[in-house]
């Protein structure tokens, strides 16, 4: 799921001389203070009240994936960088598991835009009258996003430092979705199909993506088994430059789906 909004912090009617910085706080600093009310800086995730319990079957699925995948190895980093400190457990499999769990099931906040800040080359010595930051929060699949957003607004607009004016604007909220565990019949059919096509058993992964019809279908058909899949590799670069598909991988997926439909039908 996702919660996006603009956090606007206003202090003055106009920009004022920088000499007043010893009298008044910078609006950007106040904005970051408000953000800190939501985050746990020891984990770089949002605080516990914004997290959820992970279903046991998802925990087991992520542990299986952790034996095969190291999430950070897929990312185009500028240099060799470390993961969030709490992920460095010393055990590679355990570290992989926590990376996958954070990716799939943890609420995380990012700042994705800003207004009120001039380009560095034309910035001047002044206290700016306002700062607006666009906040994007990835929420767990089972989170109550409406309840979470109300709590976020309460934390960010109550007891504001220096009595500055704070507003929450342009909210965009969408719930995530978590499929129920597969039935034994479909699970067996899927395992056989994937082994026939790929030569190995399948693993399951959550994915950040605005696919609201999956949740709608889940509510409409609560007893149905759901398999949401697609052809993608680490360098597929979805929604970016040179988005691409690996043809051999796509053929394997198509074959696996054909075997799956045959197995379920029989």
TrEMBL record:
Gene3D superfamilies xref list: 3.30.70.360
Database matches in InterPro entries: Cyt/Met_Dipeptidase
Entry keyword rRNA-binding: no
Protein's name in the database: Uncharacterized protein
Signal peptide per UniProt: none
SUPFAM superfamilies listed in its UniProt record: Zn-dependent exopeptidases (SSF53187)
Single biological process term from Gene Ontology: proteolysis
GO molecular function: metal ion binding; peptidase activity
Source organism (scientific name): Euplotes crassus
Keywords annotated in UniProt: Hydrolase, Metal-binding, Protease
Keyword Aminoacyl-tRNA synthetase: no
Domain of life: Eukaryota
């Amino acid at each position: 799921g996702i919660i996006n909004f603009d956090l606007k912090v206003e202090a003055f009617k106009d920009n004022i001389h920088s000499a007043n910085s010893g009298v008044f706080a910078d609006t950007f600093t106040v904005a970051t203070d408000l953000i800190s009310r939501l985050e746990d800086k020891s984990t770089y995730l949002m605080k516990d009240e914004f997290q959820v319990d992970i279903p046991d079957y998802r925990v087991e699925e992520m542990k299986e994936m952790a034996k095969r995948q190291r999430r950070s190895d897929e990312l185009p980093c500028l240099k060799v960088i470390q993961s969030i400190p709490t992920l460095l457990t010393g055990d590679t499999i355990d570290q992989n598991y926590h990376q996958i769990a954070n990716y799939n099931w943890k609420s995380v906040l990012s700042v994705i835009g800003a207004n009120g800040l001039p380009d560095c080359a034309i910035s001047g010595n002044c206290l700016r009258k306002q700062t607006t930051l666009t906040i994007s929060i990835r929420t767990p699949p089972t989170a109550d996003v409406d309840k979470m957003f109300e709590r976020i607004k309460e934390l960010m607009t109550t007891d504001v430092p220096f009595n500055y004016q704070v507003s929450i604007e342009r909210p965009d909220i969408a719930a995530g979705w978590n499929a129920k565990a597969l039935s034994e019949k479909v699970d067996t059919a899927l395992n056989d199909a994937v082994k026939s096509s790929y030569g190995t058993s399948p693993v399951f992964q959550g994915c950040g993506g605005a696919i609201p019809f999956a949740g709608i279908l889940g509510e409409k058909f609560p007893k149905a088994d759901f398999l949401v899949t697609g052809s993608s590799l680490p360098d597929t670069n979805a929604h970016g430059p040179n988005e691409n598909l690996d043809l051999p991988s796509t053929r394997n997926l198509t074959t696996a789906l054909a075997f799956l439909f045959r197995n379920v039908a029989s």
